[in-house]
Design goal:
Residues 193-220 form a coiled coil. The chain has helices spanning 2-15, 34-42, 49-85, 88-124, 137-171, 191-220; strands at 23-27, 30-33, 133-135, 229-232, 241-243, 250-254, 260-263, 270-277, 282-287, 293-295, 307-310, 313-317, 323-326. With 327 residues, the protein is an alpha+beta fold. The longest helix is centred in the N-terminal third of the chain and has 37 residues, at 49-85.
């Protein structure tokens, strides 16, 4: 749209020459346009003696304005031409500059003509033109409206051009050379992000190990109903499986050295009890000490409460050095 808009602005600039053929000055019953002033300068008059007498007076006083009229016509045509041939980013600026210069010259012309007319107004009374000399308002209003539209369209074109540049800049996200693209996995990571990724990898390895322990427990109980099993992750139970009986609770206890043991009897050092419920394929865990039984995420399980955990849940007693999986 911004490309087509400049042609409309150029056409309006060229059409402003039409105002030069409209009446600008009224001398009694006689009306004169800018083009009439130009004709006076080159000596083109009417046929009657009266008109020739009047025009001779105008020629004497309006001769300095002829140069201004010629310059104005040339600048209007030049501004219209540049607006059409230049690219959109420069065309509207050219239209604004041309419009501003044209209006300055028109103001100079009107002031100059008005001053000269005031000097000769008394002379026209000799020819019976006693009604006075004045500017034709409709021509001035048309000129003002025409250039108001030109300035408005030019400003609109500039705004559209800037918004288009912003949009194009936002789309230019691809590198000029694909070889310049970097692998995000090879970029230097923040230490916190690196630690987080390492922790994710560790958890993934733990899940794989728990899955293997579950498969081993299922293999050991093949041919009979599965009643649950506890797989060791490290310590004395590393890579070992402790099979359970249907709804028979076993206990985690700590001996004098701090080692965690699995036993079928509850004692004073018991940390938690656990048994398997085959109907729901889940384990019932009941911690007996505060902050002693944890999920692998680090969440502690509350004292003297029962928790139903699904198969494959990883837990640890006290610290991660005593980790187990509820196979």
């Amino acid at each position: 749209m911004k490309e087509k808009l400049k042609y409309a602005v150029g056409a309006l600039l060229a059409c402003s020459l039409v105002a030069g053929f409209m009446p600008l000055i009224e001398v009694g019953a006689m009306k004169m346009s800018v083009m009439d002033i130009l004709k006076i300068g080159v000596g083109t008059y009417g046929d009657t003696e009266l008109i020739r007498e009047v025009m001779e007076l105008f020629k004497e006083y309006l001769r300095p304005s002829i140069i201004t009229v010629v310059i104005l016509i040339i600048l209007i045509l030049a501004g219209a031409f540049l607006t059409v041939v230049l690219d959109a980013s420069k065309a509207y600026i050219a239209a604004l500059v041309s419009g501003a210069v044209n209006n300055v010259l028109v103001i100079i012309l009107c002031v100059s003509v008005k001053g000269k007319i005031d000097e000769v107004e008394s002379a026209f009374n000799f020819f019976g033109l006693s009604s006075g000399i004045r500017f034709h308002v409709s021509t001035i209003v048309l000129w003002i409206l025409l250039y108001a539209v030109i300035f408005g369209l030019s400003a609109c074109g500039i705004v559209l051009g800037k918004s288009g540049q912003k949009t194009e800049g936002a789309r230019d996200i691809m590198p000029e050379n694909l070889s310049d693209r970097k692998n995000p996995w090879e970029a230097d990571l923040d230490p916190k992000k690196q630690a987080y990724l390492e922790r994710i990898g560790q958890l993934e390895q733990e899940r794989k190990a728990a899955r293997k322990a579950t498969e081993r427990a299922a293999g050991q109980t093949e041919g009979s109903t599965f009643h649950g099993a506890i797989g060791g992750r490290n310590g004395r139970y590393a890579s070992k499986v402790y099979p359970l009986q249907e709804k028979v609770q076993v206990f985690f206890i700590k001996d004098g050295t701090g080692e965690v043991l699995i036993t079928g009897e509850k004692s004073g050092n018991t940390t938690a009890g656990v048994y398997y419920i085959s109907e729901y394929e889940e384990y019932c865990v009941e911690p007996y000490e505060k902050n002693s039984f944890f999920l692998t995420s680090g969440q502690p399980l509350g004292r003297d409460r029962r928790y139903h955990l699904p198969r494959g849940t990883e837990v640890y007693i006290g610290d991660r050095g005593h980790a187990f999986v509820l196979a």
